[in-house]
Specification:
The chain is α+β, with helices and mostly antiparallel strands and 158 residues long. The chain is built from 4 helices and 6 strands. Strand 1 and strand 2 form a beta hairpin. The chain is rod-shaped and about 90 Å long. The chain starts with 7 loop residues before the first strand and ends with a helix.
Length: 158
């Protein structure tokens, strides 16, 4: 019979698109399985998925799972709004004809609405891919936790 401890630690880190992540899992003794998940704001959808994953790997213990997530790239993309650009060019041509002076491209781009600041987080495909990567990493951290608990059980048996 192999003894497995309920005390252990698991970790997984990596990158998912523009994001760097670190999962840390700790477990201690417990009668049943109690999983507590700490996630960055706005990521509540992962909570239940991580709990379900933990239930596939563990049957007992108090488990604390925490995710640290940082973005290495700017969280905003600049995009040109084609409709606003054509309207701005038309307005610039009118002003240019009336004043006899050419309007520069920088003046057109500086007009409100021509260049939009779009949050990267507004891209649902990127967020879905990131979350899928985060769940795979949570699974890897759980596997590391299971191995760590088994190693601790061997030490306890000895």
């Amino acid at each position: 019979m192999t003894i497995s401890s309920m005390t252990g630690f698991g970790r997984a880190s990596g990158t998912a698109g523009a994001w760097n992540y670190l999962w840390e899992l700790r477990s201690v003794n417990g009668k049943g399985l109690d999983v507590r998940v700490r996630l960055p704001g706005g990521m509540d959808a992962l909570d239940q998925q991580v709990r379900n994953l933990a239930g596939r790997f563990l049957s007992r213990g108090n488990v604390q799972a925490s995710l640290q997530l940082t973005c290495e790239e700017p969280m905003v993309e600049l995009r040109v709004n084609p409709g606003a650009l054509f309207a701005a060019v038309a307005a610039a041509q009118e002003v240019s004809e009336a004043m006899g002076d050419a309007v520069s491209a920088d003046a057109v781009l500086a007009m409100r609405g021509v260049v939009e600041h779009v949050s990267i987080e507004a891209n649902p495909e990127a967020l879905e891919a990131r979350d899928a990567d985060l769940l795979k990493a949570a699974e890897a951290a759980l596997e590391a936790l299971v191995v760590n608990r088994a190693e601790e059980g061997v030490r306890l048996a000895g």
